[in-house]
Amino acid sequence: MALTEFGIWASKGIFGDEGPEAARLLEELGFGALWVGGSPHLTDLRPLLEATETLTVATSIANVWHYGAEEMVADWEQLEADFPGRALAGIGAGHPEHDGDYSKPFSAVREYLDRFDEAGQPPVERRLLAALAPRMIDLATSRAAGSIPYFVPVSHTRLSRQQLGEGPLLAPEMACVLDEDPERARAKARGFAELYLGLTNYRKAVLRGGFEEADLEGGGSDRMIDAVVPQGSAEQVAAAARAHLEAGADHVALQPVGTEGLPRAEWTALAAALIA
């Protein structure tokens, strides 16, 4: 799977009616992929693909508890027929705190992939797993094209690459705050991180990246917040994104946070700092 080094991650909730315009802007800025969060269905990608010519658009992630595998296969057939080679199917098991049916997530994802294999689509080379823990990373290696971890420090990216080996794609999301006032920027980062520090799977992933329980309390230590949600100028954030590449990532999906509405100015500034 070929992706450029940098893309953008954005929840479908921030688009409203502006999704097509946002997708066009990202394509014009030179980003290679748009990762759509907020438990999207493949049908949510259609207007973004219609508005662009070359941009890769992906679910990040389709939730196995809320999107039946057979429905996803049918949606994939239609999307692939209309936009061949431009969509990616990122799937995951969500979180026990948010998904009431959450039970045996590893088995649930494996069985979901079984349905894909039976249908012959989405093919292995076009599916990705939200893999945070070792067993899921192994599954991403053997049953998918790779891993798309979220809310992880560079140290987790390094461990993921070691486990995945050289072949599979590794495309972490990296939230960031473009604000050169250190106190204000860190406050924005903490505001964003609050939700995720309350979710067991993300807490374990951060701990796996070399942090301690104390780093996760009280809104998160400065060291942890700075590692997971880098802040500063566009150039400083760009350096943090490149650190993920140096640790073994193939592609980094940047998510500017601490803004209202579509972060057009932040996307533009990041493109200038990251894309030649």
What features would you describe in this structure?
The protein is α/β, with parallel strands linked by helices and 276 residues long. The chain has a single domain, classed as TIM Barrel (Alpha-Beta Barrel). It contains eleven helices and eleven strands. The strands form two sheets. Strands 1, 2, 3, 4, 5, 6, 9, 10 and 11 form a nine-stranded parallel β-sheet that branches. A two-stranded parallel ribbon has the order 7-8. Helix 1 packs parallel to helix 11 and helix 10 packs across helix 11. The longest helix is centred in the middle third of the chain and has 15 residues. The radius of gyration is 17 Å and the shape is globular. The relative contact order is 0.14.
Features:
TIM Barrel; two-stranded parallel ribbon; 11 strands; nine-stranded parallel beta sheet; alpha/beta; globular; 276 residues
How do the helices and strands line up, and which of them pair or pack?
Elements: E1 6-11, H1 19-29, E2 33-37, H2 46-50, E3 56-59, E4 62-63, H3 69-82, E5 87-92, H4 105-119, E6 127-129, H5 134-143, E7 146-147, H6 154-164, E8 169-170, E9 173-178, H7 182-196, H8 200-208, H9 222-228, E10 231-232, H10 234-246, E11 252-256, H11 264-274
Parallel strand pairs: 1-2, 1-11, 2-3, 3-5, 4-5, 5-6, 7-8, 9-10, 9-11
Helix pairs in contact: 1-11, 10-11
